[in-house]
């Protein structure tokens, strides 16, 4: 564990051989040297209980072998991407693909394909679905707009896994090459022709391509090897083996592209592979035989279909430990997370149905009947849709917590207000996201959501209005009058904050500067004095209103002559647009301790 070897020989083991469906001999011919188990591997590791006898399948003729340069196919027509999430399930014995509407949870079409369809992959634009037919030795191309097969691509012997590059320009199909070495056919999706073949170690059972499209990771069941292919050169750059990671049957890559996870069927565990070093850094026991794996949009949870325990194991990728198991149907084989809607689809091979798991509750919410022996499943990308924004307005300064509602929001990566990124983005579920509005100029903008599938279209339902920044002009007034007498003569000053609008004042601070040696007494609430400075705070002031605060300056502390006090606005909210009236002064003349004028 934790080591890699690009040249070490594959470890030969005799593993448990679970019951599998009856297949034509051409699909299970020996694939080379090694133990008897390796020469006649269980191509479909399905723990399938006995059921009513079936008509024996007719033996196929020996599979034909075609050179890459000799393959031909129909030209690729133009298509429009599918608008919503759709699941596609290969029915291994039914020679068909079931099409499930993710919104309604119903089968909307059954598409006949070749014999023994196993692998399935939806193109990144959602326009096509590639299906590998092991019995027909070819790939069916389904047009998702019509749910019909638009082309058939020859693909050599027993094609099984298939995966698209992120840009959709190439598809990668794992095959057996004439009963000898194993390989990956690289298909140019524009011309629908095989443009390269890469020889790999182990029988390809699953393929995953890194998010940047730079590498294809191949799980090799027979030979117990994981192969890393450089997609730029179509060459093998690493072969990863470990005696504790036998017969990898499924592989998935983390959304950030740093790790790969393989379902090791005969080791009853999941490998954690560091793609920077191409080493196995750990294995996670899962309590059953994992046949396929899928991962949550944030990369935090891994889901492994356990074919012999009729359950799905949920793995926390931060701790690499199983947190729970979810009971599903009998003989689960393929599993795929729908990143748009926060669900996972599990093909139950022995029950001829699909379990739908809610990833928020880890509970099966629906069971959908499909064709004979559902084997693998993939889900189209559904663009996010925004149908509501609440509240619909807020200050230009930002900071408002906004709830965005819609559909297909589960894998939200970012939210933007008029092109400006929001902060505090939180995915509640597939229909709700919250975010903090960023600062923006006043006006109405569109709120857009970006997920793994792309960015939401704009429209009236997503509009958010930034309100003009409120302004309130404070006019500072200062008045004074003498209070004379032999015992306690003083000057009385009233410092007034008057709001001239246009908006209400929420708070303000005014200061009054006294002559040297003077101080203030009789301070009202909200006013303090420090040396010769009086500071007064004001609360809310309505437009057109004024609030005054009065204090005293004792005459016996003043020298004879002019006495000047100055009042100044030092702070206020909202913004004061008119600083010209922020200052006021008042001069009184002290003639004697009993005589003063203001």
UniProtKB/TrEMBL annotation:
Location of the IPT/TIG domain = 383-467
Q: Which InterPro entries match?
A: Host-pathogen_enzymatic-act, Ig-like_fold, Ig_E-set, IPT_dom, Lactonase_7-beta_prop, N2O_reductase_N, WD40/YVTN_repeat-like_dom_sf, YVTN_b-propeller_repeat
Instruction: Return the annotated region ranges for Disordered.
Output: 1-52
Q: Please name the Gene3D superfamilies in this protein's record.
A: Immunoglobulins, YVTN repeat-like/Quinoprotein amine dehydrogenase
Q: Name the SUPFAM superfamilies on file.
A: E set domains, Nitrous oxide reductase, N-terminal domain
According to its UniProt entry, the protein's GO biological process terms are: carbohydrate metabolic process
- Give one Pfam hit by family name: TIG
| PANTHER family per the UniProt record, alphabetical | DIHYDRO-HEME D1 DEHYDROGENASE (PTHR47197:SF3), PROTEIN NIRF (PTHR47197)
NCBIfam families according to UniProt: beta_rpt_yvtn
Tell me what this protein is called: YVTN family beta-propeller protein
């Amino acid at each position: 564990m934790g080591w890699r070897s690009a040249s070490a020989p594959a470890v030969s083991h005799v593993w448990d051989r679970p019951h599998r469906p009856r297949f034509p001999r051409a699909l299970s011919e020996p694939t080379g040297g090694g133990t008897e188990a390796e020469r006649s591997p269980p191509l479909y590791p399905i723990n399938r209980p006995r059921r009513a006898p079936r008509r024996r399948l007719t033996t196929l003729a020996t599979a034909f072998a075609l050179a890459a340069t000799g393959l031909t196919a129909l030209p690729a027509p133009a298509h429009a991407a599918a608008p919503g999430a759709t699941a596609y399930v290969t029915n291994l014995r039914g020679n068909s693909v079931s099409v499930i509407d993710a919104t309604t949870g119903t089968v909307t079409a059954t598409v006949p394909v070749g014999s023994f369809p196993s692998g399935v992959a939806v193109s990144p634009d959602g326009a096509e679905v590639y299906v590998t037919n092991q019995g027909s030795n070819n790939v069916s191309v389904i047009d998702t707009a019509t749910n019909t097969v638009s082309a058939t691509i020859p693909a050599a012997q027993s094609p099984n896994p298939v995966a698209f590059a992120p840009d959709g320009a190439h598809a990668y199909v794992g095959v057996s090459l004439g009963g000898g070495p194993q390989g990956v056919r690289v298909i140019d999706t524009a011309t629908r022709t095989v443009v390269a073949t890469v020889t790999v170690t182990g029988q390809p059972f699953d393929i995953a391509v890194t998010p940047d499209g730079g590498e294809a990771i191949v799980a090799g069941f027979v030979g117990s090897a994981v192969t890393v292919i450089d997609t730029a050169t179509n060459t093998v750059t690493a072969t990863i083996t470990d005696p504790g990671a036998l017969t990898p049957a499924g592989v998935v890559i983390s959304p950030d592209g740093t790790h790969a996870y393989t379902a090791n069927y005969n080791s009853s565990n999941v490998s954690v592979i560091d793609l920077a070093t191409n080493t196995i850094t750990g294995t996670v026991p899962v309590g059953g035989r994992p046949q396929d794996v899928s991962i949550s949009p944030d990369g935090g949870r891994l889901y492994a279909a356990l074919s012999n325990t009729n359950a799905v194991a949920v793995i926390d990728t931060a701790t690499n430990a199983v947190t729970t198991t979810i009971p599903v149907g009998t003989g689960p084989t393929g599993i795929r997370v729908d990143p748009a809607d926060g669900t996972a689809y599990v093909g139950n091979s022995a029950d001829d149905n699909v379990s739908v798991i809610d990833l928020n509750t880890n509970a099966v919410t629906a069971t959908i009947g499909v064709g004979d022996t559902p084997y693998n499943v993939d889900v189209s990308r559904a663009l996010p849709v925004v149908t509501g924004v609440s509240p619909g307005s807020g200050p230009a300064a930002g900071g408002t917590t906004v709830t965005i509602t819609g559909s297909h929001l589960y894998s939200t990566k970012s939210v933007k207000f008029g092109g400006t990124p929001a902060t505090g983005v939180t995915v509640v579920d597939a229909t709700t996201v919250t975010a903090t509005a960023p600062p923006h100029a006043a006006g109405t903008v569109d709120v857009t959501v970006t997920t793994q599938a792309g960015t939401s279209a704009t429209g009236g339902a997503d509009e958010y209005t930034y309100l003009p920044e409120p302004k309130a002009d404070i006019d500072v007034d200062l008045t004074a009058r003498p209070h004379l007498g032999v015992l306690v003569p003083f000057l009385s000053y009233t410092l007034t904050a008057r709001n001239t609008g246009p908006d209400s004042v929420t708070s303000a601070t005014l200061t009054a500067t006294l002559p040297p040696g003077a101080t203030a007494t009789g301070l009202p609430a909200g006013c303090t004095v420090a040396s010769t400075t009086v500071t007064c705070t004001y609360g809310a002031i309505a437009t057109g209103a004024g609030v005054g605060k009065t204090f005293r300056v004792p005459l016996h502390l003043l020298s004879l002559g002019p006495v000047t006090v100055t009042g100044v606005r030092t702070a206020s909210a909202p913004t004061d647009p008119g600083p010209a009236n922020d200052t006021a002064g008042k001069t009184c003349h002290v003639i004697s301790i009993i005589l003063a004028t203001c």
